[in-house]
Amino acid sequence: MDAIEVVDVWKKFRIYHDRVYSLKERFIFRNRQKTEDFWALKGVSLRVPRGATVGLIGRNGSGKSTLLKIISRILYPTRGEVKVNGRVSTLLELGAGFHPDFTGRENIFLNASILGLTRREIKERLDDIIAFSELGDFINNPVRTYSSGMYMRLGFAVAVHVDPEILLVDEVLAVGDIPYQEKCLNRIRELQKRGVTIVFVTHNPKQVEELCDLAIWLDRGEVRFAGPAKETVRAYAAFVNTAATG
Amino acid sequence: MTAALWQQIAEIYAYREMLRNLVARELRARYKGSVLGFLWTFFNPLFMLVVYSAVFSHVMRVQVENYAMFLFVALLPWNYLAQSVQQAAASLVQNAGLIKKIYFPRAVLPLSVVLANLFNYLFGLGILIPALLAFKIRLTPTLLAFPAVLAVQTLLVAALALLVAAGNVYFRDLEHIVGIALMAWFFLTPVLYPLEAIPAEVRGYFLLNPMTPIVDAYRALFFYGAWPDWGQLWRTALGGAAALLLALAGFLKWQRAVAEEI
To answer: In chain A, where do the E strands start and end?
Structure first.
């Protein structure tokens, strides 16, 4: 069974030139509400086999992030269907819901619960998360005293310990200094070995080749190429080069 | 639709730890940085009581005996409703950052507001009960009916909180309309006056207001040492449960587009 199945997904965004929220403006400008439809995804279909790591590549505005958000149910498709089998965790932002006045430890509970963990699950993982964050005694200080690197590390530590069956990642791998980044990549490899299905969006073709089995190249909301990571990266690179020179 | 609704309820339950943490954050963060801190939770109702009893025993005399307490037993639950609905209206819009980045059942946000205010009400009882004793109002076994009345009120508050939270995403004026509507509703509910003060010929209309039987029930069990009108309360409970299910169904439909409308 596939972990993720995307069937002919279309997504329309309505772009408001002047967003009108209030009653007065709605009444006054009722004929002037200018909107324009923008199709971010145009009939995207794909399957992600269980345990595979899939990279989504493409230029800015190609619909990568929109697709990721639809798979994670933050956005809903205008048309089409997404079937997901397994517990999903999305890494779009690290440290969601952190409260600056709470300690690192308290924020682990807050953040992990927003990611859908129960109290027992959080307690089981607490020591691992604190160890992974490398924050040491700072874990008992309020988060507002953290440097941005420490903040990201704590967020990342929680995120990779959610233990999802399906992990969706949107360019958050650039966390902390180089050794810490290496540690994060190792953690991703560890999750791969455990059979976690991973989909990640990136601008970095090298990372795709290194980490992914499959890759999908999106262009203006359509799948331009889908196949083994190396082939997709090659096709994409050829396209980018011709675009640059031609 | 029904299957989706039960699935939604199961999902909210699965996110109970998030609900718990948001409530704790709300209760603890509210008075963060103030000298008295969490004690404000008790001082607020206490000062309110002091002011009312001063005004109504010295400045403005009212026919009702022990008017300050007569008012106070109804005002605390009213504040539970009013503050929940007012804060819930802003709850989704205020958490836009979270909603755009992470999936979770969105209903958790307005529901956490309701629960935080529920706890505030319960803390308020820490002032109410001693005050009732100080004013020599006898506490009777009718207090046992309190959880039932509270449960009925909570059904209603949660339903309204969900509706205004979702509505405010699409129509931002709602937040302000809610403030005015709550004020009008306050005067139409027998909080400041007894139900008997309403002329008999229009009293029937006042009973259509679901807060009327609830406030009346609180007043009966705290102030008069009487049991609430069970028939009334039962009908309100059924209405409240139906309203909550409808509100959840509506919320389920509206929440789909919340991340892009916010």
So the answer is: 2-16, 35-49, 53-57, 79-84, 88-91, 166-170, 197-201, 214-219, 222-228
